[in-house]
Design goal:
By secondary structure, the chain is mainly α. 68% of the residues lie in helices and 0% in strands. The N and C termini lie far apart (50 Å).
């Protein structure tokens, strides 16, 4: 069946029928890498469904909650998960600052800065930055109608920051120093 719809979800509940199987598989898996891979597969499958902006927030919250649960567990690779959560926070802070600054031409700077800050935490932070950046560009490219050239330039700034490049390379003149 198609399942019931709830007002806070813009797609039928049947899309989540595999969620219980995912949780059971995660709890039985010995490898932290396997757990993170399964979480990534689940979240990317959810993101590939045509989502409205409000639904995207719900999905991001579910992914972050999953990462928090992994970080709070006493599992090998805990540092990776903790760094991934910190990296997600760094990415959010860069996004929040970009929205607050609302400064023309600063988009690439905030992309590079968020990825730079996240990657400095270690492999977990770099992983989170890549996942978030790729998901954001996939979503923006499909929903917002932005061109391929803009997506390519955003991804270039993302890679530059993740690889340790100075985000100020993309900083526009006149951007307030608090950013």
């Amino acid at each position: 069946g198609k399942g019931n719809s709830h007002p806070w979800v813009s797609f039928p509940i049947s899309y989540f029928e595999g969620f219980e199987l995912l949780i059971n598989t995660l709890s039985e898996s010995e490898s932290t890498q396997d757990k993170l891979h399964l979480l990534w597969l689940w979240s990317s499958a959810v993101v590939r469904v045509r989502l409205e902006p409000g639904t995207m927030r719900v999905c991001v919250c579910l992914v972050l909650l999953s990462l928090i649960l992994c970080a709070s567990a006493d599992i090998p690779g805990r540092k990776f998960v903790v760094d991934a959560i910190g990296g997600a926070k760094d990415m959010y802070r860069a996004y929040r600052d970009m929205r607050e600054a609302n400064y023309k031409g600063a988009d690439k700077y905030f992309h590079a800065r968020g990825n730079y800050d996240a990657a400095r935490r270690g492999p977990g932070g770099a992983w989170a930055a890549k996942v978030i950046s790729d998901a954001r560009e996939f979503w923006q490219g499909g929903v917002s109608g932005r061109g391929a050239e803009d997506t390519r330039a955003d991804q270039e700034a993302n890679r530059w920051g993740r690889s340790g490049g100075d985000p100020n390379r993309y900083r526009p003149k006149g951007l307030p120093s608090k950013y």
